[in-house]
Every structure is written in structure tokens, then in C-alpha cells.
Amino acid sequence: MIAGGKVFKKRIFKALVTTTTVMGASLSFAGPTPDLAKHAEQCIPESRKLSGDFHQHTLYTDGATSFDFVMEKNNEFGLDWWANSEHGGKRNRDGEGDSWLDTGKYPVNPILSNSPDDGYMYRWQSLRDFVYPDIVKSRELYSEKRIFSGLEWNVPSHEHCSVGIVSESMGPLAVSAFEFQFDGSDPDTSRVGEWTPFGVLAKQNSTHEDSVTAAAWMQNQYENGMIDNGWIIFAHVERAEAYQIEHFRDFNNAAPDICFGFEGAPGHQANSKRGFGRNPGDAYGGAYGGVGSFTAKVGGLWDALLGEGRRWFNFANSDYHKHWTVGGDDFYPGEYQKTWVNAIDRDCDGEFSQNEIADGMRSGDAWFVQGDLINYLDFKAIGHSGIASMGDDLKASRRGRDRHRQPVVLTIKFKSPALNNNGDVPAVDHIDLIAGKIQGLIDPASPDYTKATNETTKVIATFTADDWKVDQAGYNVIHYPVKSLDTNTYFRLRGTNHAVNTPSETDAQGNPLSDFLATDNLGIDGAAEAWADLWFYSNPIFVFVE
Description:
Elements: H1 34-42, E1 47-53, H2 67-76, E2 81-84, E3 90-91, E4 121-122, H3 123-141, E5 146-154, E6 160-166, H4 173-182, E7 195-196, E8 199-200, H5 208-223, E9 229-234, H6 245-254, E10 261-265, E11 287-288, E12 291-292, H7 293-296, H8 301-306, E13 313-316, E14 337-344, H9 354-363, E15 366-370, E16 376-383, E17 386-389, E18 393-396, E19 408-415, E20 430-437, E21 458-463, E22 469-470, E23 476-482, E24 489-496, H10 515-522, H11 526-532, E25 535-538, E26 541-545
Parallel strand pairs: 1-2, 2-5, 9-10, 10-13, 18-26
Antiparallel strand pairs: 1-14, 3-4, 5-6, 6-9, 7-8, 11-12, 14-15, 15-25, 16-17, 16-19, 19-23, 20-21, 20-24, 22-23, 24-25, 24-26
Helix pairs in contact: 3-4, 5-6
């Protein structure tokens, strides 16, 4: 059963943009029954950190292996949740690689587009009529896992984006309507004017404005209860120079509950350039320790967004197409990169639903890791007003206002597994604590709306094994008091297996170096370099000084 509800407040971002009109229906819901209300009062929700991957491919699009094979690999590598999320547009085969025109398998041509005889089925149909039934079967087979229906959206005038939609009552209808209307590689017009529960369908798939309208459309469906949950998280964002910071600001302004992040670490990590082999030598698109420049550069684009106080979070996935052992660029889902999400069992039914996992992603209480450098992270800020986790706000007293109040204390608790999927013993060498000032939202009319740096962001502390203690359960624990906090500040973490000043891997400050250096100078590339070079990144905690 899909659990949870719309528990996140609408944020002030929407005040910055002109209201976008989208088609949709409004539903009203009755309040809880007395029995349910009594249950809610007694409920003490459990939380759990769950690993996942929401960007992967099968034979339905340009993947090299079958749908069932990829689902099996997700399970084999221990993921708790995942999404089938592959390209929009059109393809000429099903999830087993068989042609739609194979009369042995399809005696009647199944294609419903304007050109059924060309052998290509548009994704709006395959998502609805073929992929979703396969997802339902996989949910039955892997009943302890949570499997989402998704799409790799060809964003009009940009590049790619991972989209996920949770809809218990509507099944695959919403993602089908989204792809038909807004995918930049879908010119089919066969459904134009069709009435759906989400509005009358129209093609809006050419411009940046269309892509913002798409985000607003999904926000509208979420607000009106037409979908239970969803996300629009941009993929390999540095590749092809397809995104600028103003684009992310536009998307987040239009859909703050839906567009809330990007994939800071791209997939294709077994590629010789760690995910960016298509742009060799391009500083804009290069990777640093397998992490794109938007995230890896302290004071760069991600920090500029966080410096506005935006809830803009970071994730990683496999982008699996073809495994590196058979000539591909990829690891299997969960084999090398994982996104971990703290999910809350809000209805206390003992299970974690798709809805609760999607809520966890939106909350920002999430982190990503390579090579299982760690398999547990708890990062919190503690102050006089309470405790905040990743993605949360904490109120703190201004220095000197009340000398008897304790400083904000940051706590970091982490652990590494005994072995990773390469048979190595992963070990954290050091963790960097990164902080930057929160200076407020930038108006779209301001020249700073296109500014992609935050000069206030710095590494303010570095922790090694000398700085953490091991508790009785084997977790490494760090307590760091921030004694001089006098301005609104966010804090985030990154960690690595490399020492500071490791040749071709880190500089004198511990920052990751370009992966081109590792390939050229160390004489290793692809999977070997990936397994040798491990990082994790947390999402931020926002502290506001009163």
C-alpha cells in the first residue's frame, strides 16, 4: 500500500516566478476516521537507511541486457529500491530485444502511433502497456524491494533527466502522459487533444520554457493528488554543457517539491574518464574523483544553489547500459555507486513504501557513495532548538547573544563494510567538513541569477582516524562544536579513501583532482581506477542564526 502524504510545505520559491497554467483536476479528501486518528497518535515511526539506484537501462531502449536481467542485478547487489528509468522517444524492440513487428511474438501489430508500420513504438505506449506490467511482475518476484516506474526524460533544449512517478491509483498513466507531452525526442501527435485525468494532452517539447512547464505540470499533479509522489532529478549534468545554473533555478522555482536535485556523480563510472568520456579534456564536463565539477568543486555551482538556501540535493546512480567486462562503460546497479535515503515508516505498518522512499529523497536526508567506502552515515546538527538531519533546518543563537547557550554541535557517525563488491576492504582516510553562507534567494531579474559560484564556501575542518572514536557497535563517531557561528550557514561532508596530496588523486587541501590525471599519470583507467578512487558526499544541513 502506498503510504504517507503531502507533508512538505510549499516553499517560497514559487513567489519568484509567474504562475504557469497547466491542465489538471483537483481532488478533495476527507479527514481521518477516529480509528485512524487514534492509530496515528500511538504511532512512533521507524526510520531506516535504504540503498537505491534510479537511472538504468534495458533492451527496451539502448541497454544491452533484458529487463529481467537488470531487475535481477539490482537485487543481487543488495539494493532496497530502484527505478526502471530509460530514454523517451521511440524504440523498435521490447524488453527482451524482440522487434515489435515480430509476428511470432506479436501476431497483431501492437504499435499505436501515427506510423505503426515503421516498427518503432513511442515510449508513452511502451511505458504504459509493456514496461509497467513487467514492473508489476518484478514487484511480485522481489516483494521485499520497492521498484519505481520512471523515465529518462529528453529535456527540451537541454539533455537528460531522471523522472520517477508514484501513482497507486493511476498506475503508469501519468508517466505516459508526461513523456508524450514533454519529451524532446517524441514528435508523435497521435494523442493530441486526448482527455486524461491529468488534463487534455498537448505537445510542449521544444524550448526551455516547455521544460519548465513540464516541471510545473508534475508539481500540479502532485499538489492536486493526481500522483502520490514524484521527482525530476537531472542526469550527468555537466555533459554536453546542456545545463546552466539559471536553468536549475528556473526548474526549482516552478516545482520545488518535484525538481529538487541532480546526479552529482554520473553513471558510466567504468568509463576511462569516470562518466564523461564523451567530452575528453573538457574542464566544464570533467569528473573529479568520479564526481562532476558542479559538485566536486568547493564553492562551485552546487554551493551557489545551497548558498541561496535552496533545497537542492545530490544523488548518484549507475546509468547502467552494458557492463565493463563485456565492452561497456558501466557497473551493474548497486555494484559501485549507491544513493542511500533515510525513509520514515510514517504509517507504522512495518514496511517502507515507494511513497515513503520518495519522501526521503525530497527531504534531502540522503547521501551517495562509491565502492561502498561507507555503508552507513548519520550527519546531524544539534542546537538549543533541537536536532536537524541532512536536508533539515536548525535554528541557532547568534554568538554573544546568550553566552550560556551551547554552540551548534555537528555529529558524524559512519561505518564501512568488511568488503566491497571488488573484494577490497574499504577504509576512509579523511572526511572534509564544508561550509558556506546562506545569503537568500536570488531574484530572476538580478544579474546574479546566472552566477554559479559561492565564494564563502570553504573546507572548515578535516577529520582523520585521530579525530573519531569507535563506539561499542563499531561505528566511527565525530563531535565537532561550531563555536563562532554568527551567520546563516549550511554544512556538508565529503570523504575519501585517499590521503591529502595523493599523486594524481588529491591536492594539498584534499580536493579531488581531474580523473584525466589518474588515467594519464597512474597508467590505470576504467574499472581499476574507479575501484582505487572512492568518495562519498552528504547532503547539507541548513543552520539559521536568530
